Amino acid sequence: MSEARVSPRGAERWVRGHPWIYRSDVIEAPEAPGVVRVRDSRGKFLGQALLSPRSEIRLRLLERTERAVDAGWWQAAIEGALVRRRGIDATAYRVVHGEGDALPSLVVDRYDRWAVVQLLSAGLETMREQVLDAVQSVVGPEGILLRNDVPIRRREGLDERVELARGTVPERVEVREGGVKYHAAPWTGQKTGAFVDQRPSRVLAGELATPGGRALDCFAYHGSFALHLARRAGEVVALDVSADALARGAENAALNGFTNIAWREADAFEALRAFERGRERFDTIVLDPPAFAKSRSAVPQALRGYREINLRAMRLLNPGGTLVTASCSFHVGREPFMAMLSEAAGDSGRRMVVRRLLGQGEDHPELLTVPETGYLKGAVLTAV
Ligand SMILES: C[S@@+](CC[C@H](N)C(=O)[O-])C[C@H]1O[C@@H](n2cnc3c(N)ncnc32)[C@H](O)[C@@H]1O
Fold first, then answer.
1. CA of 285 relative to ligand 1 center, distance in Å
2. Does the domain made of 3-63 have the CATH classification 2.30.40.10?
3. Catalytic residue status for 218
4. Cross-strand bridge partners of residue 263
5. Kind of pairing, strands 352-359 and 317-327?
6. Cα 120 to averaged position of ligand 1 atoms, centre (Å)
7. Any bridge partners for residue 357, and if so which?
8. What is the pLDDT at residue 370?
9. What confidence score (pLDDT) does residue 28 get?
10. How many angstroms separate the Cα of 131 from the Cα of each of 35, 145, 301, 321, 380?
């Protein structure tokens, strides 16, 4: 097997628990991507890694021992990840969360009897057949779809595309999440077909919704929060800018027999302003916007955006009402997010109490040494 050598600083990263070694810490490495043995500058064996010759992240640690990274290795690693998901009360969830499952650059999501896979590094791409075989044998899906249409692959010198890898995968998959059903769209939906990372927060929002009250789901996508809210609330307004997502939302409502959700194609910023002007009130509001900060430099502007929607939502709450608010911007950490909420609460003239802190589901494990694996943060606030 090919070998790479890394600087003392690179070696130290692995010792300290970070699985990536950057280009600048690689002394020498083969020109072709693949799995390589890695040694430090004195020749000591450090482990085996995925090599991406064109990426800034040059090496991703896979295995610290000499054990062969072969079909059996992938199978055992994916099996381990699946075992850690036992007990999840849903048929759509993440089976492998990359670095968080010690399988860097690999994402595997299960949608009932189908699997969606993302191979996010050049090194991993060379393992494609072994990885797919392992997913097939461990998860046992009727089909595997590769949702490799992600820009991050460009940095690896890889193309972006959606490809059927095994069996057949339908356009829509009916899945269950707690007490609601919804249709995921593996081929065309955002991410791998649904936002499975918010699963526990959605279930919680449904439990906290004021019975018989009025609820608002901004940034609703295909209604994943709205459906949970509709189980208890008297009336739900679900809004999103994507007509496609809303159309699926309406189908999802029908799937559950809910007739109390109004679907509105609207910009959430404008809609919140209009609700405020119209003195409308809600008992439960969910804010689950897209990542406003795609880079570090965008953080100040993103925080202004988060502050505006949260401030308006707080003002729209009836006394005793609940705000479920989240940010999936990795660059906006939990502390700045909570500071923003506190500023918004101060400006809203409302006393807001923190009832819960939220994060991504346990099927999206966060590796403490890789902050990128934990991007979703949120809170449940009550107006008292
Ligand atoms: C993070 S996703 C929401 C996921 C959803 N809450 C769920 O749990 O499945 C963000 C959504 O915001 C929508 N969106 C983006 N900008 C928007 C805007 N200005 N107003 C309303 N919706 C917007 C996107 O179409 C996307 O569906």
1. 14
2. no
3. no
4. 238
5. unpaired
6. 24
7. 379
8. 85
9. 97
10. 13, 13, 40, 47, 38
CATH architecture assigned to 71-167: 2-Layer Sandwich (3.30)
Tell me which residue of 112, 124, 111 sits closest to 74, measured CA to CA.
124
**CATH code reported for the domain at 195-383:** 3.40.50.150
Catalytic residue among 204, 314, 326, 328: 328
Digit-coded pLDDT (tens) for 270-308 = 999 999 999 999 999 999 999 998 889 999 999 999 999
Q: What pLDDT shows up at residue 290?
A: 95
Q: Which of 216, 240, 325 to mutate to test the pocket of ligand 1 (most atoms within 8 A of CB)?
A: 240
Whole-number pLDDT of residue 373: 83
Name the residue ranges covered by the structural domains of the chain: 3-63, 71-167, 195-383
Tens digits of residue pLDDT in 358-381: 999 999 999 988 888 889 999 999
* Residue bearing the CA closest to ligand 1, atom 2: 290
CA dihedral of 133, 137, 140, 144, whole degrees rounded to 10: -10
Closest residue by CA, ligand 1 atom 27 = 221
What proportions of the chain, in percent to the nearest 5, are helix, strand and coil?
35, 30, 35
pLDDT for 374: 87
Using most ligand atoms within 8 A of CB, pick from 182, 241, 327 the residue to mutate for ligand 1: 241
Q: Which residues of the chain have pLDDT under 70?
A: 1
Ligand 1 site residues, Cβ closer than 6 angstroms: 195, 198, 202, 219-221, 224-225, 239-242, 245, 267-269, 288-290, 328
